[in-house]
From TrEMBL:
GO terms for molecular function: electron transfer activity; flavin adenine dinucleotide binding; succinate dehydrogenase (quinone) activity. It holds the Pfam family Succ_DH_flav_C. GO terms for cellular component: plasma membrane. The active site is at R340 (proton acceptor). One of its GO terms (biological process) is anaerobic respiration. InterPro entries: FAD-dep_OxRdtase_2_FAD-bd, FAD/NAD-bd_sf, Fum_R/Succ_DH_flav-like_C_sf, Fum_Rdtase/Succ_DH_flav-like_C, SdhA/FrdA/AprA, Succ_DH/Fum_Rdt_flav_su, Succ_DH/fumarate_Rdtase_cat_sf. Keywords: Cell membrane, Electron transport, FAD, Flavoprotein, Membrane, Oxidoreductase, Transport. It comes from Niastella populi. This is succinate dehydrogenase. The gene is sdhA. It is found in: Cell membrane. Belongs to the FAD-dependent oxidoreductase 2 family. FRD/SDH subfamily.
Amino acid sequence: MLNSKIPAGQLELKWTDYKGHCKLVNPANKRKLEIIVIGTGLAGASAAATLGELGYKVKAFCFQDSPRRAHSIAAQGGINAAKNYQNDGDSVFRLFYDTIKGGDYRAREANVHRLAEVSANIIDQCVAQGVPFAREYGGLLSNRSFGGTQVQRTFYAAGQTGQQLLIGAYQQLERQISLGNVTMYSRHEMLDIVMMKDKDKNGNEIGEAKCRGIIARDLITGELERHFGHAVLLCSGGYGNVFYLSTNAMGSNVTAAWKAHRKGAYFGNPCYTQIHPTCIPVSGDHQSKLTLMSESLRNDGRIWVPKKQNDTRKASDIPEEERDYYLERRYPAFGNLVPRDVASRAAKERCDAGYGVGSSKQAVYLDYAAAIVRYGKIECGKLGISNPSAEVIRKHGVDVVKEKYGNLFDMYEKITGENPYEVPMRIYPAVHYTMGGLWVDYELMTSIPGLYALGEANFSDHGANRLGASALMQGLADGYFVIPYTIGNYLADEIATKAVSVDDPAFVQAEKAVRERIEKLMGIKGKQSVESFHKRLGKIMWDKCGMARNEEGLKQAIAEIQQLKKEFWSDVRIPGDIKEMNPELDKANRVADFIELGELMCKDALNRKESCGGHFREESQTEEGEAKRDDSNFQYVSAWEFKGESEWQLHKEELIFDVAKPTQRSYK
Ligand SMILES: Cc1cc2nc3c(=O)[nH]c(=O)nc-3n(C[C@H](O)[C@H](O)[C@H](O)COP(=O)(O)OP(=O)(O)OC[C@H]3O[C@@H](n4cnc5c(N)ncnc54)[C@H](O)[C@@H]3O)c2cc1C
């Protein structure tokens, strides 16, 4: 039975009440308790630093050469918080409500409310660390809007918010490393968890098996290592790269979560993928990466396509009255700032109907011309320039846009060779984030005692669609403010547990299984590259489990993935050796896990016959082509239990909405 451990009582008081009553571990006992943290992105670095500061003995792992290279560094646009600096009607309740509605009523109320509550603390914490958030002239932190909201609550540091936040968390982590509270293992990849039961005085096993450690591979020497922990935290990020092409960092993968899943951790809502509407379109077969143009650009940019099908004119030759600002037309209340799932589907709909632009016709325009004029006029007004010429207005407008979004515009120009100050950008949706992940309860514990999941690695607070600027908020909420309390509630009962020797048979057995799998992979000596399998998997996933899914396609995808798996395990070619630095071997290991995950994602998508958020089942849409939810049959979290190769059992966590009553989502 799934127990989400949501505290009783009024929604607004649950977290306060929990904190007031959860068990604590005294400082002397904290020093005896060891915690393993997998991942040092925003979720992992904030957790490791905070737990180290609290006095626990922490070991942190990442596969990059430095925690600072975690994928979190790529985050551009910003981080949400209910500070209401703008006095525009924001509140904790409104952030909670927007997030539940934005997630299409497929997230847990209690978790989301807690997230909204701690959001303001995150900003204070980061400012105290010296994170250089953008400020107004008077010194107050500046805000902008992201999709799915009507207030301005997004804090940002130019277009490098993730980088600046990570530097803040990393500094705290480094401090704990130098104090000896955290031991850092870079270039180490966790390849399995180790589980064992407690023993009584007579050495008999008692109770449920708990997570007590990991097997990691030193990626430089290829050696396997065993590490004990009283608890293990997976902060290993999202799995968008299952689609091959995505905006994620190339190294992002599912391996840590997948190994835990195979050992008994349920996987929550695996099919919920976020497709981001503003990415640079695919330009050819040679690509292995897609680039995001931050959602912040939708604050000021206007999205349009020509009103005429197959229009081949240049954007500048298409007069205003022949342009279709389709988001403003279809969703007047939110306009260009509708949530990502809605904006992505609308772009696909226009392109499929023959209104796409660019040579591939798989793109729409994101246009800054109007914003440049609007800002230019304001600046001229501020500077007291009367009757400014169009040229002067433009010059000042460009300066403002440069100040706000300059690095993003530069990036676009470097990649496409087009100057976005002069011509509209071309954008198209791309895979960006995974709302699915390891199922966790209110305390962020997975279905394995002692194993936690934080940040993008868990099935998260975002339901079926994440609002922009909410991932950083969630990762840091989990690491700085939630886990320090909830882990104490578990570890308070572990203070008598002595560190287990890594010579224990459970460790020996786990290491043996990892070694055998690596040897099996290396022993295949087939003909096809790891990359070619990944690419083929990605194509199946994008075509059949991407922006739109249907029953027939999903069934085909499952059969194709099963076939791909057989082929992979009989014909993959991995050059090099085991006992050396071998990135092809690392990748093969990850792709093997992606293949299994892909199958589960399709199974989950097939089971969920409704449309909700990022999961659009073609069979379930309104007459206007909007996603049609089915609350009477699908108001639950799907938590999948691994039962053997290609076999899973579905557990359902019913979602109860006491406060934010589900309605058909409307942004009109
Ligand atoms: C281009 C881009 C822009 C974005 N912009 C924003 C934004 O503006 N606002 C926002 O809120 N969100 C944004 N996001 C989303 C956000 O960046 C991520 O969801 C978030 O940073 C994830 O943080 P994390 O700590 O959970 O994981 P990550 O930052 O992905 O870190 C994962 C860590 O786990 C480690 N790891 C993984 N597997 C293993 C293993 N097996 N063994 C050892 N270590 C392992 C890695 O080394 C790494 O340290 C953006 C995402 C992208 C792709």
